[in-house]
Here is the input.
Amino acid sequence: MRMKLLLAAVAAVALSAAGAEAQSSGPVKIGVLNDMSSLYADIGGKGSVVAAEMAAEDAGPVLGQKVQIISADHQNKPDVGAAIARQWYDENGVDAITDVPTSSVALAVNEVAREKKKIALFVGPASSDLTGPKCNAYAASWVYDTYSLAHVTGGAVVKSGGNTWFFITADYAFGHALERDTADVVKAAGGTVVGDVQVPLNTADFSSYLLQAQASKAKIIGLANAGGDTINSIKQGAEFGITEGGQKFAGLLIFTSDVHSLGLKAAQGLQLTAPFYHDMNAETRAFSKRFSDRFGRPPTFDQAGVYSAVAHYLKAIKAIGTKDPDKVMAEMRKLPINDFMTKNGKLREDGRVVRDMYLFEVKKPSESKGEWDMLKLIETVPGDQAFRPLDKGDCPLVKKG
Amino acid sequence: MTGARDGFPARWRVGIAALLLAAALAAPFLFYPVFLMQALCFALFACAFNLLIGYVGLLSFGHAAFMGSAAYITAYTVKAWGFEPLTGILAGTAVAALLGAVFGWLAIRRQGIYFAMVTLALAQMIYFIAVEAKFTGGEDGIQAVPRGHLLGVVDLNHSLPMYYFVLAVFLGGYALVYRTIHSPFGQVLKAIRENEPRAISLGYRTERYKLLAFTLSATLAGLAGATKALVFQLASLTDVTWQMSGEVVLMTLLGGLGTEFGPVVGAFIDVTMENYLASWGSWVTVIQGVIFVFCVLLFRRGVVGEIVDLARRFAPGRTEAPPPATVAQTAPGE
Here is the structure.
């Protein structure tokens, strides 16, 4: 018994010594934490790991050593995500965690990062709370949030004549937030909201909601939902002939992988906001070619965003020659973000990356030249108009002046 | 009388218990404390569940409701009302107990699959409330719950004091389960499991026993959930989903249905798989499924059940092992 305790004590000392060493002088280690098996696996999943690996390879040796990428599946459970994040930061010498789709998991990881004073580079989660009331000096929200989705889609659609709206809203906090933000923009731009309907999460049959939307005669049907719910509403909407009848869907959170699984016939005419599309210009095409050579399909904006975030993080470490989180965050804020998908992006003190956002429309099947030729650019919205102003987010890190 | 009941002589049992306790005390120096705390919370949850299925023969498919609602109440009272950790846990556990009494009162009127379905339906109502109610934070859950200071003295923000606190909660819960099983009350429960009409004909008001056992099980599940909310500093929808109710069935079956220590082993196996296989991505669920199938086909008594059975075979004077306790056997039609 005494022997056992003694052994335990020795082991504990050895372990903590090893841990301390790993933190100060080991290689830069980045953990990709996302959904690998369930509804968000197509958006990020293994593709995000590939993107992070590409960014690490492109950066070459950092602090004299090869950058390590590890990954795990958080199964969309906040407790699993928080446990993995704690273990990575505490025991495995992980310096930064990236991706983290699903807002509830991201909020949990955000708290762990705050407590451990380690870096989190959020790409997948949409919650604007991460840069609002829950903002954290060690976290960055890299590509988008609910506020920008609502503002870009809402504003642009009204401007192009879609001034009457009907919302089909997923009945939970995320859906309500999207609807509220979008409705505000629509009204501010002179449009009207003629009605809305709340739909339980993971509904299979949208027919009654779609009939209400059809009967409302609104020009635009706003889809304040995500993933499978969005796909179902658009698919069934096509069966009801909603787009043929002159009404248009406006998706508030749609990924290219969603459009791909819908098919152009069902999705045509759909307007959506994204920070990246693989077929925008020579640079995005070059990156997407490299990515799809390795992964088999072009990157979603989440996967592209993981590359962008990891690349910028490593660039900052190289510039200052240390991976001390405080110094790295300061350097990341100082350096402008420039890569294949970002032009003069800036990391704000509340953790928001301000960058251009784009409004796209899904092509008609006749306009498409290939399986992944899906979107056409309608409008580019500069970052300062797309994202919430710094002083409006209630972030405690922002000094009220 | 308890000595050689399941094949182990009394001094073996004491020895094993002492060894396990020593291991539990030394464990945080060898393993990652948060992982151990998570495993302990699930172990307590599985023990609570096993009390019902293993000793009364009632398969509840809604135990996540008790765990989850206690987690929410604890997280909310500690975060929003500034409750001290122990008071917060008590508040959460009390709500789970109340919920258990109400659910139990409704559910024990039916048996077998109907009982399971009633508990599932009631649990789904709790899930719906958790999604919709304002105070639960919807799908974001309640985040950043402060661990605070136990009784105003012990700082639970450090892993070690928190671990020993969780260990104490677990041991308390486990002791309660153990005491219940070995009390006259527990004997009546087993009698009900084996043959309810006979227990009734002997003059026992079986529905009262069942209701009490159900409430006790719900209370302990709540205690596990309340503690878990403090460990992870969050309460989320994961704890109230029906998948969680299913996972506890898996843990109990893996470890050994109706054995005292089986659920603990099962919970540790399950949590270990979830943690250490996380980098395998989607394979986690597949591996869990395969292990479950193997377990059902090869060791029907679960890990601990098989060990106990082996010990029995080699114990002098015992040649034949009784058949494993199964759900089908214990849930006769109405």
User: Anything to note?
Assistant: Chain B has one domain: 10-330. The radius of gyration of chain B is 20 Å.
